[in-house]
Amino acid sequence: MQSAIVLGGGMVGVSTALHLQRRGWSVTLVDRKEPGRETSYGNAGIIQSEAVRPYPMPRDPATLARIAMGRTNDVRYRLASLPQHAGPLLRYWWNSTPERHREATLAWARLIAYATAEHDTLIRDAHADNLIRRAGYRLLHRDPAALEQAIAVAEENQRDFGVTFRVLDGRELAKAEPLLRDDLPGAIHWLGPWTVSDPGGLVSAYAGLFERLGGTLLRGDAQTLTETTSGWSVDTSGGRIDAAHVVVTLGPWSPQLLRKFGYRIPLVRKRGYHMHYQGGRSLDLPLVDTANGYAMAPMAKGIRITTGAELTSPDAPATPIQLGY
Description:
Layout: E1 3-7, H1 11-22, E2 26-31, E3 46-47, H2 61-68, E4 75-77, H3 82-94, H4 98-112, H5 115-125, E5 132-133, E6 137-141, H6 144-161, E7 165-169, H7 170-176, E8 186-190, E9 194-196, H8 199-212, E10 216-219, E11 226-227, E12 232-236, E13 239-243, E14 245-248, H9 254-259, E15 270-271, E16 274-277, E17 287-289, E18 294-299, E19 302-307, E20 309-311
Parallel strand pairs: 1-2, 1-14, 2-10, 4-20, 6-17
Antiparallel strand pairs: 3-9, 5-9, 6-8, 7-8, 11-12, 12-13, 15-20, 16-19, 17-18, 18-19
Helix pairs in contact: 1-8
């Protein structure tokens, strides 16, 4: 029987462990905390089956200048951390040319097409359907020209990849979401995505399924990973464990660990922030405000606001400036 250690108990790690397990592997899932307590906890909770095009890095000088001068809320950065991002950002910029972006889209669209179907199997087996809503989300635009451009892209995506949407004008949007005033240009309602009321809870449910199927879940320090003559070893709460293979799913902490084994992963380390608001008027579906660079979603703990990206180092202190924008 093939054996593997999966380092990192977020959504990627737990899902990987489950899929290896279903293929007959012996799997041990290792994390320093309970599953789903790090980056997989604080996201916007959208399973984005409509996201068929990877987000390209802006290439026009005006947008880049606004980011550089700190005049946007969707991307901010720490000046001191920029040197460590320079290489990955340059590669990101290089691969965002129209030609290269088209190639990436063709590959990515084939993967994203499985998003809801693959989650559906795990959701049903983990008895987590109470956390899921299958009604899509809305993409708000505050500028008429931006809305028209977004509609054109949505129509192209529908034609090329079969994703579904409908356009809401300002009145229709305000009727669907009374939180909003009725003089906004409108929104795109993406119909295919699913939304999650507790992202961390969904990861926990998947981890519970993994254990019920015979998987081993242990606390441990990924930094103790060592290569052996027969595979890999790591220290855990259950002692030192060994396996023939290791899967590293530590998100922004992965490159640092892999570097000591000779791997150089050009990862742009981005951080986001979130906050919950309770009371007041409710929200029907998650809403992404493209102009102001945030998303808000109805969740178990109230309406969650999630920010855009902050480019920083993994262990830098929190600076949630974007939450107050």
